Amino acid sequence: MKHSRELQALGWNGNLSPFFGQGPIKAGLVLASSVPMNTLMCPFLKITALAAGLMILSLEASGQKLSIGVVGGWSLTDDYRGAGTTTVPLNTPDFNTVVTTVITTGLHDFVIGPKLELALPGHFSFEVDALHRNRQWKATSLFSPPLDFGYGLVSSGTYSATGSAWEVPLLVKYRLPAFRTNAFGSAFVEAGPALRPWLYLGGADRAGFTAGAGLRVHPRGLNIEPTIRYTRWGAAKPTYQSVSSNSDQLEFLIGVGGDRSSVRPSVFGQKLSIGAVGGVGLSGDFPPKEGYASARSKVVGVMLESGLSKSLSLEVDGLYRPLILSEGQRATVLTWEFPVLAKYRLSAHGTRPFVELGPSFRTAGNLSGTNPSRYGVTSGAGVEARTRWLTVSPAFRFTRWTADPVGDMFSPHTYTIRNRAELLVGFSF
User: Fold this and answer.
1) CB proximity list for 196: less than 8 A, separation 6 or greater
2) Tens digit of pLDDT for each residue in 325-339?
3) pLDDT score, position 158
4) pLDDT at residue 12, rounded to an integer
5) Could you identify which of 123, 133, 145, 153 might form a hypothetical disulfide with 175, taking C-beta atoms 3.0 to 4.6 angstroms apart as the criterion?
6) Residue 221, helix vs strand vs coil
7) How far is CA 176 from the centre of its chain?
8) Residue ranges covered by each domain of the chain
9) pTM to 2 decimal places
10) How many CB atoms neighbour CB 106 within 10 A?
11) Whether CATH 2.40.160 fits 67-262
């Protein structure tokens, strides 16, 4: 940018590359605990190690009561500290103005993710969650008098930063026998370490400690748990002027899971199928650029499927996809996609064709001047072949994403292609 030096004098910083902490982070989850996290230098390997640890834990717990469900809610505190107004003069050979900057932080974004709970002797249990949240702040600068950047007078400019984080609390829960009633369920307390294995925008610490309390009720074979949780994260580093991640996090969550009456993994009382899915895009990620063709990315991830009836099931995938800017640049935008699909089988015997439809959600980091949209609709069709232990399901999918947010004057965007076709193959057990 022509006036990048003057903008840097104001504290503008467009470098939003991923922040990776130093040193090993260890968690007591079988595989994850045996691999130092500083050797897992990309988000895919970190999440894969965590998922593998959870799967091994579920296998080792085959003789225990196991519940798999979902947890969601809202943060009750801001994501960042440092909101306020500053006024500084800008006197250079090119500019002579006063800049007033207003910083706002956090919108108490929605938090959601899967949960796994294993019953232990007595009144204890062990719970692992994988919670996704968006974190954001925004700075608006007012120029008095307005500045001329060569394309007309500019009286204000906005710089916004949105990142994402996966938080993994590892909690020991204790049900309080003295606070158990048939009418209101049972009260519980919980505590344990919390990790952030994948974090963008940086500044925040990757380890903390979580404590909470809640109430468990049991309508129609489900466990519903409204909970208040507090997490204290390690010391944070400033990311922009006075902006720094909030180390104190308070949130309200509601967990929903099975009643743990079955020794087999289940979701809402239904049999759960766990597997892996991978494939390749049949259309490009971004439009052709600077004479280079649009690149097609590959995808890999995990899948969970629960039967709803004889022909109908619900499938949720967690797909890691590094979007490629162009064949020339080969720069990648790291994304996770979460299609939630109703799957209907057209036959009950042999090789079974199926159709699927549902919403898709996306989170992105390492943006490289992009800002992929967060929501879309996915449809697909395929066939399912089942053996005694393994189900193989090749499928064609099409996703229509909403339009990417429009970039501002300080961060011009390259926009993703909204229509995506892909060929996937799933393997489930």
Assistant:
1) 165, 166, 167, 168, 204, 205, 206, 207, 208, 233
2) 765 656 788 888 999
3) 76
4) 33
5) 123
6) helix
7) 32
8) 25-60, 67-262, 269-429
9) 0.55
10) 18
11) yes
